[in-house]
Amino acid sequence: MRTALAGAALAMMLCASTPAPARDMAGGATEAAPFGSPVDDRRVFVHGVFDRFEGRLGGGGGNAFRWEGEAWAGTDFNRLWLKSEGEADGAGQVSDGQQEAFYDRPISTYFDVQLGARYDLDSRPGRGWAAVGVEGLAPYFVHVSATAYASAGGHYAAKVMVSYDQLLTNRLILEPEAEVNLYTRDDPARRVGAGVSDLDAGLRLRYEIARKFAPYVGVTWEKKFGVTADLVRAAGERSGDVRFTAGVRAWF
User: Fold this and answer.
1) How far apart (Å, rounded) are the C-alpha atoms in residues 122 and 88?
2) CA dihedral in degrees (241, 223, 216, 162; nearest 10)?
3) Which band of pLDDT confidence, cut at 50, 70 and 90, is reported for residue 31?
4) What is this structure's pTM?
5) Residue 252 buriedness (CB in 10 A; 0-12 / 13-18 / 19+)
């Protein structure tokens, strides 16, 4: 009798400790999701950010306004990226106007590959490019973007951008960043020469009033090199300048 009671008690304990099978919305068991509903990775998300929306003040080249922004829409695996950057001087002339569209897909945990096109749209003659590149986070969370371009007439180019967010406090962030452009052929109409063309570097200190809105101040350094510097000076412009910068970073 005691043995029978002990066996019954053990059977009840085993039944109580065995997890109930997963059930669908109708209450039936499902073997496809034994641990709950699967992650929905087909949902379409939209995100946009103005990394640079700033005035550049002082320097021998006068005041200027610069913008750099990007937006994407898509799922975790397939996205459409749009990027835009450029600079307008006090006379309303726009330079360095680059508009890009990419198909984006992750190739690792931290990096995506991007395939698309770029068009140089500003106050100078335009040029179209096919583009392929990678973008993501390198070790120590350094943001890196490297893109190669090909255009008609044997023109090739490359652009590398690097930035890093150093958190001084939870809201005060110091960001060093740099962008370098390279070209294989001279393009006098766009004041671009073969080789390393230009460097745009900056150090910005921003304060996140809200996570989506952060004013900042900083200093920027623009420098033209080689044939590009010769073309710029021939047009009556400076080949290098250091400026005080004030702007806002915002995203949605």
Assistant:
1) 9
2) -170
3) low
4) 0.82
5) exposed
